[in-house]
Amino acid sequence: MHNTYTHGIHLTAMLAILLFAVLANIGCGDQPLFDEMAESRLKVVIKGTFESNAPGSGTWVGLPTDDSINDITPSIAAPTVLMLDFAEMRIASASGGSEDRFANYRQTYSVPLNDSNAFFDGTGVEFRCDDVKIDKTYGRVKLYIRKMIFNNAEQYYLSDSGVWSSGTPAETIFREEDVYGLDFNQLMVNAYYDSLKENADDINRVFPLSIPIDGGFVYGENDGEVVLEIRLVFKDFIKQYEYDYYDEDGRHAVYHFWGLSDWLRDVQADERAIGGNLHAVARVYNPDDVGIISGTTVGSGWVIAIPSENDLGLPQSLDDYFIPAGDRTRPAIDPPSSPYLPAANSIESYLDYYLQYEKYKVDYNTFVTAVDDGSYATDWNNYNVNVGEFRLPPLVTWSNGGAYTLTNVPRGVTYNLYFVASGNVGYGELPEEAGDYSASGSNPVSVGDTVNFP
Amino acid sequence: MMKYCRFVIIVTLVVCTASPLLARRKSQDFFLKPQAGVWFGPITPVYTTSEDVETRLGGGVFARYNLPWAPLKLGVDASYQHFKSQGVKELTLWPVYGNLLFRLPINLPLAFQFKLGAGGSSVEIQPEDQQQWDPLFMVGIEGSFPAGKWVNIGLRIDYLLIYEKHIEGAQRNGHIVNTGITLYLNIGI
Asked: How do A395-399 and A402-410 pair as beta strands?
């Protein structure tokens, strides 16, 4: 009897457990979640062009030199490769807070400088990423840039007799290997304005580079593939600079290197900070919900489209993106540069040095007056606010004069279109607010419209 | 003769005394009692799952019941396992399964058991914010020693396969290895 009772308990327990195992499998889902976790419906594409599609032919030789070159003027060979090392990318709210590490993958790119590379032909290169949070409003992408290197940089030393050595190729490390070139990213940490501030060491403009997402970004639960397009203006925006320094033996030396144009934030002789000149914008589109806007232009130039209303639903124009030329003019008040001794074994050099030192003291007294009356801080703060208002438009394409097509234009909003004649914007420049562009008479236009610029 | 009789009597007494003692030891294998316990330790994604999330700490509870066939036990096991990545990816599992345990017939204080089981697991992924139940299969091994008649202390290693390849278009399953310290009680003594 006892035996039968015990076996009954055993059988019941066994059946209960087996039943539990079976029940646990009932109602199993039909979504491959591990695939979903491994793959991303968000795709990040980085382009090195001002244009969002169909950029024109670039200029890769005969590049301009900056007025920061004042010690020696040898010409260095034009760069042929751009090396980029990105530590990671994060996405944040419009204010830059509440960020998510959606692309925590170090990625490097070695980009030949020509029109056929995906980085420069309007296609873009992909940046590995994960999905972002559902229904969260994002407004900024933060790109953590470790290195930006153009090759063909040269290093020169000033001898004790005051003669500059011939150039030797500068070396740096990229992808854990020695390469020729100069990592100008380290010089872009601060803009010149930042270097004037007491907290300059706390400012970093490239780690991360904070990039606005034009129109913001909310990722819906049922959204399919979504593309986050980031544009960094490299193409037709390269310039030669001079970087002064003193080595461990006290020798004066310079680098001549290639960096990004100081069109927005001017860099002058003997200044080391060239930051604030990497212009970037991001936008988001669903490839299944986009169309084109096409038409013709009479001459060559850029066709630019911006949403006709801003995030607050207010009308906007291209004036809200670009700034007048006058806003880029640096304040006249600058801390004077201290003189240096060009040749240690030359009496003339010493005499020159002391003469310059006297001038330096006089200039400094003038500078102190501007500091004391507040004009120095006011002028530079106003300048920084003005240049900080410059934004890249979300949609730009090039026209050789004739047909043009803006592609991947999101549906559901209307756009204002503008034309910038190529003659108004030179190499290493971007359009300005007054006079550089003309608005289409058809504004606002919708996806699928044909817009001709007379 | 007298000496021989005395020897026989002594031996008989010893045997008679010892036999119940031996029999008592045999009948007091507390490991054969129903058991319940907890475990705690590293939970490690392996194979393709390790490409997305990283090792964390997890833990769970379990209960076991003896079958009429002495080396075999039936168990149920439930745990909470939350994995994070260096990015935004997160994986939360609630594996719940039944298993059959086979105790190796080794005459040692240590008990070694093989485990084979099946059940289901709640799977939740972030940032997609999706959740569902998936079938689960497991295999494991466990070693333990008694700490008194009530308590057993042991180590366990379990491999959990969260089976999703039955879903149309699925390319991956979930692969998790649980290792942990386990503490469980013999109940009903």
From this structure: unpaired
Interface contact flag, A27 B133, Cβ < 8 Å: yes
> Are A32 and B126 inside 8 Å of each other by CB?
no
Yes or no, beta carbons of A29 and B123 under 8 Å apart: yes
User: Structure pTM?
Assistant: 0.83
The interaxial angle of helices A375-388 and A347-372, nearest 10 deg, is: 90
ipTM, interface predicted TM-score of the complex: 0.82
- HEC letters along B121-172: EEEEEECCCEEEEEEEEEEEEEEEEEECCCEEEEEEEEEEEECCCCCCCCCC
Model confidence over A97-154: pLDDT tens digits?
889 999 999 999 999 999 999 999 999 999 999 999 989 999 999 999 999 999 999 9
Sign of the Cα torsion A44, A45, A50, A53 reads negative
Domains of chain B, residue spans: 1-29, 33-186
B114 touches chain A (CB under 8 A): no
Three-class SS of residue A176? coil
* CATH number, domain B33-186, options 3.50.50.60, 2.160.10.10, 3.40.50.2300, 2.40.160.20: 2.40.160.20
Identify the closest residue of chain A to B87 by CA–CA distance. Answer: A101
Cis check: omega of the bond before A444, within 30 degrees of 0: yes
Q: Which amino acid is at B92?
A: T
pLDDT per residue over B114-125, tens digit each? 999 999 999 999
